[in-house]
Each structure stands twice: as C-alpha cells, then as structure tokens.
Amino acid sequence: QVQLVESGGGLVQDGGSLRLSCAASGRTFSMYSMGWFRQAPGKEREFVAAITWRAGSTSYADSVKGRFSISRDNAKNTVYLQMNSLKPEDTAVYYCRGTIATALATMDDYWGQGTQVTVSS
C-alpha cells in the first residue's frame, strides 16, 4: 500500500504561480513513477505531468508544456508540480498518482485525495 498526501493548492490570480507537493509513504521502495492529474467540474480527469522515480524522466500534457514543471525528491519521497503563468482554465482539483511495480510485474496505481487550484481572471 502507498499513501499520498497532496498540499499547496489555493486561489491565485491569472498569471500567478503555485507549487503543489505530494508526499508518499508506505511501499515507496517499489515506486515506478509519480504524476499529476486534474479534474475540472463537469470534465474527465486528465493527465498533467509525470516523472519516473529512478531516472527522473518527465512528460507533460501539451496544455501545460513550458508553464508547469514536475520534479521529485527521492530522499523525501515527494513529488512537486511548479505551476507558472497560471490561467483560469487551469482551475481544477489536482490529484497525485503513484505507480508501484509489483512482484508480479504489474503496475498498481494509488491516488491522493486531491487539492483545489483556482485561478481567477
């Protein structure tokens, strides 16, 4: 089992910045990757960014490339999402996801409780 706790959400003006954190505990030694997803009211949950735990390879949704940056601190079992140049359309609940490699060579996903990000125009 893995527990994920997000923090850092809030209200910010158009063009502002926020940094989200997601702290993992439990079976973190089997962590394969961590990522951020978001869900706006009335919309499907969508991918934002991800990072592999060992190599630190990153990937981003086209809508956030050049504005958001994902990073990790392996010693603290924490992943961060630095969000710059925020826009009202970035308003959503942001969820952290941890992907664990199991002994059966499958991947298990774990989710945090979510943190609200609101960008005012």
Brief account:
This protein is about 0% helix and about 60% strand. The chain is mainly beta.
Which key phrases capture this entry?
121 residues, mainly beta, 4-stranded antiparallel β-sheet, 59% strand
What does this structure look like?
The chain is mainly beta. The protein has no helices and eleven strands. The radius of gyration is 14 Å and the shape is elongated. The model has no long low-confidence stretch (mean pLDDT about 95).
Topology, please?
Blueprint: E1 2-7, E2 10-13, E3 18-26, E4 31-39, E5 46-52, E6 58-60, E7 68-73, E8 78-83, E9 92-101, E10 107-111, E11 115-120
Parallel strand pairs: 2-11
Antiparallel strand pairs: 1-3, 3-8, 4-5, 4-9, 5-6, 7-8, 9-10, 9-11
Order of helices and strands: EEEEEEEEEEE
Alpha-carbon Rg, integer: 14 Å
Q: Largest beta sheet, briefly?
A: 7 strands, mixed
Kindly state the mean pLDDT as a whole number? 96
Structural class, from helix and strand content? mainly beta
Total E-strand runs: 11
Share of residues in strands: over 45%
The helicity comes to under 10%
Total count of helical runs of at least 4 residues = 0
Separation of the first and last Cα atoms: 40 Å
Report the uncertain regions.
none
Shape: elongated
